[in-house]
Amino acid sequence: MTSTYDDKVADRRRFLLAMMGGGAVAALGGVAMVRFFAGKGGNAMAATPAATNRVETLLLECFSDDDGHHLGPCDVRKLVLTDEQWHQRLSDAAFNVMRRAGTEMAFSGPHEKPQSKGLYRCAGCDTALFDAATQFDSGTGWPSFWRPIAKKNVIESRDTAYGMIRTAVSCAGCDSHLGHVFDDGPPPTGLRYCMNSVAMRFVAYRVS
């Protein structure tokens, strides 16, 4: 019998919760094991480079906080900061994920689909990343989406951490690590953009 997508989601959740509840995560390497099953990597980004005087302008897609209306392409100055400046801007947990390609613990963040309509923006530079309408419960304990709000706004790159070949996802506006994308998601794309909660902030639409 062919497993349905819902069966796979339930299997993921049961497996992760069993590992966490039984202490197996700590016994098997803790964060490294959690990253493995969530599809997270540890070398998707290098250390943050020092800020320079060079200003890079990007052409990204902009969206309204009022109702998610697509405002079209817009010129955005790429955010480049020193490690010290990033530490001032981000929490310790967010810095570890976004600037060191770390991974938050499964089920530790607000990963459930929000009740209100809205979009997710980068916690570092406010670039629009995902519409809540594309979010789904993947059973992994991390917020998952079947597509980004705009392909221009994210960068996908090869990640070979932990002896695997995966696709890391980062914010185009500031090069901050967000998570990974996999090909085991639901229709219509079949993709699973598995993100870290601390790397994003949710903005509820002001107009329904």
UniProtKB/TrEMBL annotation:
Phylogenetic placement of the source organism: Bacteria, Pseudomonadati, Pseudomonadota, Gammaproteobacteria, Lysobacterales
SUPFAM superfamilies xref list: Mss4-like
Gene3D superfamilies associated with the record: Peptide methionine sulfoxide reductase
Organism: Dyella acidisoli
Protein family: Belongs to the MsrB Met sulfoxide reductase family.
Keywords from the UniProt entry: Membrane, Oxidoreductase, Transmembrane, Transmembrane helix
Transmembrane residue ranges: 15-38
Membrane keyword on record: yes
Source species, domain of life: Bacteria
Reaction(s) catalysed by this chain's protein: L-methionyl-[protein] + [thioredoxin]-disulfide + H2O = L-methionyl-(R)-S-oxide-[protein] + [thioredoxin]-dithiol
NCBIfam families registered for this protein in UniProt: peptide-methionine (R)-S-oxide reductase MsrB (TIGR00357)
Keyword Transmembrane helix annotated: yes
Pfam families recorded: SelR
Entry's EC annotation: 1.8.4.12
Domain MsrB: 83-205
Protein's name in the database: peptide-methionine (R)-S-oxide reductase
